[in-house]
Each structure stands twice: as structure tokens, then as C-alpha cells.
Amino acid sequence: MMRRIISLFMLCITVSLSYAQHTDANIFGHVQCDGEHLPFVSIYIKGSNKGTATDLSGHYMLTNLPAGKHILVANSVGYKPVEKEIVVEAGKTIEINFVLEEQIMAIDDIVVTGTKTFKRQTDSPVIVNVMEGKMLEMIQANTLSEGLVFQPGIRMETDCQTCNYTQLRMNGLGGGYSQILINSRPVFSPLTGLYGLEQIPANMIERIEVVRGGASALYGAGAIGGTVNVITRPPDRNAYAVNANTSVINGAASDFILNANASTVSDRRNAGMSIFASHRMRESYNHNNDGFSEMPQLKNNSFGLNAFLLPAPNHKIEFNLSSMYEYRYGGNKEDGPAFLADQSEERVHNVLMGGADYSVNFNNNLSSFAAYVAGQTTDRDHYTGIMPDEGTPEYDEHFKEPPYGITDNKTYLGGIQLNHMLSHFISGSNQFSFGAEYNYDMVDDEIVAYNYHLDQETKNFGSFLQSDWSINRKLSLLTGVRADKHNMVDNLVWSPRISALMKQKQWQFRASWSTGFRAPQAFDADMHIAFAGGGIQRVELAESLKEERSKSISTSINYDYPNEHFILGFTLEGFYTKLTDAFILEENGTDANGNSILEKRNGEGSTVKGVTTEIRANYNRKVQLEAGLTFQNSEHEKAVEWSENSPGIKKYLRTPDEYGYYTLTYNSRLGINAALSGVYTGPMLVPNYGRNELIKSPSFLENNLKVSYQFNWLEKGLAVEMFTGVQNIFNEYQDDFETGKNRDSNYVYGPARPRTVFVGIKLMSL
Q1: 560-567, Cβ contacts within 8 angstroms, sequence gap of 24 or more
Q2: What pLDDT band is residue 322 in, cutting at 50, 70 and 90?
Q3: Are the beta carbons of 39 and 54 closer than 8 angstroms?
Q4: How far is residue 704's CA from residue 724's CA, in Å, rounded to a whole number?
Q5: Pick from 755, 765, 760: which is nearest to 252 by CA?
Q6: CA torsion through residues 589, 591, 593, 595, sign
Q7: What is the pLDDT of residues 482-504, one digit of tens each?
Q8: Which of the four, 125, 523, 591, 689, has the lowest number of CB atoms within 10 Å?
Q9: Is 392 in a helix, a strand, or coil?
Q10: Structure pTM?
Q11: CA dihedral sign, ordered 62, 63, 65, 67
Q12: What would the mean pLDDT of 218-243 be, rounded to a whole number?
């Protein structure tokens, strides 16, 4: 199947290039604001991949454009986009100049995640939240996991005291209910979800787009909670940056990070490449002085690149590749081999991830075709073990066969998508999208000493048809259906979805209904082996496990009031998800080696419902506030017996009824910038298998502060930024961690780190 997709991909390139024509139709001009020329402004033909950017002098040129009527767009971060209707004639060159106005707050960014087509946020029938890479830097978010907490409806959860794996939770649902994309491609496998969110450095990220819920039919039926699309940094100009910072964790452990970025674009703007590199060294941190770490030792090295080529008018080839190495060790006695420790988890990851896209616009830019392939491979060596008491039979067995494991994980996918715009469709216009995608994932994870072996192979062929109907300027209707054939589900699964948008001046009203399913397979949290009461605890899938189905409804109100000096806005969203045959975990005795088993079964069903509120404000492009708060309730219809020795409970475990975030940033034209941010986590029920009881955790409000000063050396085209700050200022951190080698490692909650002081410097081109 993969060979056929790759052959089709190469055939499309060959055929489309053979039809490429040189029209010798050109456009040139300049872009200004307040009488000054603006460099690096994006200039492109709307609805196509034909574009460029202004040079250092604020001038641009587009060559060999297709003849006909087009919309030419000038767009740059911090400025209001401008569109001009133009007529292009073969053999003629015309001059088109632009004058841009600064905008106070970007409330109408161009996004791609909602419909897989370029669309303004305010025109998207589904809510798309955007977090720019610049904001990640302002709030000192060093990794993807640290940045995602500053998005409405999202909570990042640390689930292991020893290894600190993280889990993404959206709208009250666990990590397996959300889809993580890299450059719009689902190469994040269930295994990668365990540690991958912390392995992706922030300097790799251009922006993060988040869609809550599953209203768009273009994404997998498993995207029940929502979709996170991580878009890596593209080459848009000749530039470089080097950033180094060091942190001290609660006065006891150091964390050093070195990042570098560089990009270059050809003089004709028809090719470019950007690269990034990241290095991290973090010492382990022991919070309760028992000799066992609460934060593991980390060693990370990452490298990657993005590249594009415009081989002919309206044709584009994109390529991305990244390599990530991580060493992670938690427990004690980290100076020696892992099997000599009293309790430890050791992980060595080598991850290679990448993809290639080919796209072409034709039919006067009313139609477009895209073909893509992507994949990832992960090699993991790992150890998870407890030193048995000396003098026992298990003690001798431990040295004969320490519980080391090997994991091989591969993910491949390929797909095509065809878009066609009907300019006159009953009323308004309608863009139809059709596509098909094949996704293959294989994970082979084995620990011989524990008689543990997960050999899972999943194959899913999905196709979709979607209609994005702009009925008029005020009303849009997004309808679609997915058909998925999964090798672990007997029948073809149909997932219809619908979403509507109504606009009225500064108001937007949205409503959506969607269906989806999750296959009876092992997801991220199921692959983690935990410590509990002196032994290990692992998840097994019930033999009768079948797919889980979902139905979701969401409604929202969005309002933004722009003024000459400020913008005020809010969003209020309600969500409701009904799960049938919901997956549950219940204790199911022990295996032949005496290890505790949690069995994944189908329950009666469950319901997740709630409200997410967002507020945003910006004054004179200097002070900007964003905040979100979610109130929700998640319950099973029938009580789940999480422990054989305790009564069941309907409420979801490890799920607070309220959580949220805020960011407050200040940008001065004098080069002084400051950012105050925070994350709130409400109380939740956390199981403690060592004590066999449910603990209600306290609430936490983690506050962070960063201050920076930037000096611009204009003569050399160089800028130097110095920064410092404190994360978790008031040391809001769990204070009842389990101690010793027999601790319950999954008994962990709250902020991912205690008070941390950092300082750093950044060198970059202007």
C-alpha cells in the first residue's frame, strides 16, 4: 500500500511539472507602513501556493504568474492584512504597492487546522486557537508540553514520579482521545505520546494550532477530545538565532538548554531551508530528601530541518525531518547501572520523524491537489525495576535477568487530498474536499524478566468528504463524513460531522455535532509500567475489548471589540461528549510473577460535559492579556472498581473539575519586555495503590515571571537579548510524595516542577 502511495506521489509530480507553463507575467512593488518600508512581509496569491516575501528594502517580485483575475495579499505578523484584486496578463509586468497598518492584537490569523485549507480564524466554522512560537519564548516555555498548558481547555498532566511521562488532556478527556499532528500529519504514535511532548523543543515550533472537539471530518475519528497541530518553523528569510539559558530547580538541581536556529531563502524566493538544533542537560531533582528523584535526569539532543521548493508556478514541494535523542533516568543510584538501583526507570530514545508534501493549484486556482507521505521510527532501550530484598529468591533472580526491555516503534502514513471551489453554489461559494489516508503503526515492546510483551500492529484506511459552504458573509456550514476501516474493528466505521458559523459584526456563533471512535488498542498511558507497593503494575487489554464510540456537541459565542488603542474579546464554549462502551481500568489480580494487573475493559458508558471561558485584551500593542478557565464534570454511568479492595466510584480519576491559565505580557519599544503567566489546577481524586485509597489533591496556582532586555545593534544587523525570571514563584508543588523504593510512582499530581530560577542570553539577526 505504501509503495502505491509513493508511486502516485512521484507520478503527480512528474505529470504536473510537464504541464507547467512560463507565462512571463510578473508583479513587483513595495510594502510600507507610516512611510517606512517593511521587510519580510508575505506576498502571495490567495488560494494558491504562489508567493514570496519582501526583501530587506521592503520590495518584492513575483514571476511567471498564471494569467487571469487574482487576489494579491500582503500579510505580516503585527499588521492588518491587505488584499487587492488584480488582473494578470501573459507577457506583462505590473506594479502593485501596499500600505499596511499595525494591528493591536492578532484576532484573525490565517489557520489551516480546522479545514486543512488556509482560512481566517473568524471565518473558520470550528474554533481554532493559535499560540505563536514567539509567545512560547516570551513565557519561557522550553518544550511543547510546557507551552500547551497555556491553551484553553487543555491540561498537561505528569503521571509518573519516577520517569515523569506527560499526558495531554483536552475537555476533560485523557491523552488517547486527542490527536497530535506534526505539520498536519499524525506521525505521533501512541508510544511517542508518552514522552514525545517533552522531547520537542520550543525553538522547533513556528506555532501551535488547537481545535477542541472533533467537528472537522478531515482528521481521524479518534480526535474526540480535539486536535493539536504543531507547525515547525518554515524558511521565510535569511536569519539566525542562538539562545542559551540555565536554571536552578529549587536551589538543588541545574537545567541547561542551548538552542540554535538558522534559515535561508534563495534570491528568487523559490527555495528555502531552515534548521534547528537543541541541547539539554538537566540534573535529577529529589524533593523529599529520601534519595529518590521526583524529576528524572534528562539529556536531550535534537536536530531538524524544513525545506521548500517551488519548481514551477503553482507547484510546491515541502520536506521536513527531525532527529531526537533522549536519555532519561529517575530513581536512585544514577551513577551506576540501572539494575543496581533500589528503584529506577531508565529510558534511551532515538526518534527519527519526517515527511514530504507536494501540492499544486490549477483551474485558475479554484482547484488544488496535495499528496503526502510521513513517518517516524523510535528505537528505545529501557529498564524498569525494583531491587528485591536481599536474601530472597527474587534477589538472585534479579541479577540473573534484570528487567531490561527493548522497544521498536514505526509509524508510516500516506495520503492525498483534492479541493475544489464552486464560486457559485446555490448561494455563496462552497469548497469541497475529498481525501484518503492510510496509517500504519507497529510497536513491539518486550521485557523478558516480567514476561511482558506488547506486539501491536494497527492499520487504518480512512477517507473523507467535506463541504465548506460559505452561504453568505454571515453564515457558513461545514459538513462532512469519514469512513474508517481499522484492522482491530470488524466493520467499516462512519463518522458524520457538522458545524455551523454565524457572524454578526464582532460576534461569532458556532455549533457542532460530531461522532468518532477509538479502536481497542493500547494507547500511551497503557504502555507505561508503574511501581506500586514493592512491585510493578501494568495494563492488559481484555480479550473481549471492543471499540469505543462517541457523540459530541459543542456551542460557542465569540466576541472581539477593536478600537484604535485596544481590543477586548471573550469566548464562551459549552461541550458535551457521550461515550458508549467507554474504556475503563479495573484492578484484576496479579500475573504469574506476582505483578499487579490493571485490565482495560468496556464500561457501561460515560459523559463529559463542561464550559470553557476565554478572555483576551491588548492595549496599544504593549500590554496583552489572555486567560482561559474550564469548568467540567466527567463521570461513568456505572461505578468503576479501580481497586479490588475498595468500593467503586463513578467520577473520573485524576480529572479536576476546574483548570485554567493566564498570560500577561508587556512589550516596550525601549527593548524591555516582561511576561507574567500562570496555570491553575483544581482538586482531583488521585488513586494511591500503595495505601489503597483515593486522595483528594489540593488546588494549585503556579505563577511565572520573565523579564528581558533587547539591545539592537543596527549597524551590524545584530540583536542581543538578556533575560531572567522565576517559574513557579510561590513553590506550589506536591508535598506528600511517596518515599523509598516501594513507593507508588503513579501517585503524583499538580505542577511539573517546583520553584525554578533561570537566566539566559540570546543572539539573533535583525
Answers
A1: 560/107, 560/506, 560/616, 561/506, 562/104, 562/107, 562/506, 563/104, 565/104, 565/619, 565/620, 566/104, 566/617, 566/618, 566/619, 566/620, 567/104, 567/105, 567/107, 567/616, 567/617, 567/618
A2: very high
A3: yes
A4: 11
A5: 755
A6: negative
A7: 999 999 999 999 999 999 999 98
A8: 591
A9: coil
A10: 0.85
A11: positive
A12: 85
Closest CA to 468 of 425, 514, 415: 425
C-alpha cell at 619: 492595549
The model's pLDDT over 599-623, given as tens digits with 9 standing for 90+, comes to 999 998 999 999 999 999 998 888 9
Backbone angles phi, psi at 525, to 5 degrees: -65, -25
- Would you say 608 and 550 are in contact if contact means Cβ atoms under 8 Å apart? no
In 108-165, where do the E strands start and end? 110-111, 119-120, 128-132, 154-158
**Phi, psi for 666 (deg, rounded to 5):** -130, 125
DSSP symbol at 173: B
Is pLDDT at 18 greater than 50 in this prediction?
Answer: no
Residues 6 or more apart in contact with residue 443 via CB below 8 angstroms: 189, 190, 191, 407, 408, 409, 454, 455, 456, 522, 527
Cell matching residue 127: 474554533
Q: Which grid coordinates are listed for 300?
A: 536531550
The rounded Cα 449 to chain-centroid distance in angstroms is 35
Q: How confident is the model at residue 13, as a pLDDT? A: 44
Residue 730 has pLDDT above 50, yes or no: yes
Query: What phi and psi, each to the nearest 5 degrees, are found at residue 256?
Result: -115, 135
300/280 Cα distance (integer angstroms) = 5
Match 469505543 to its residue by C-alpha cell: 548
Q: Phi first, then psi: what are they for 6, rounded to 5°?
A: -65, -40
Residue with cell 506527560: 166
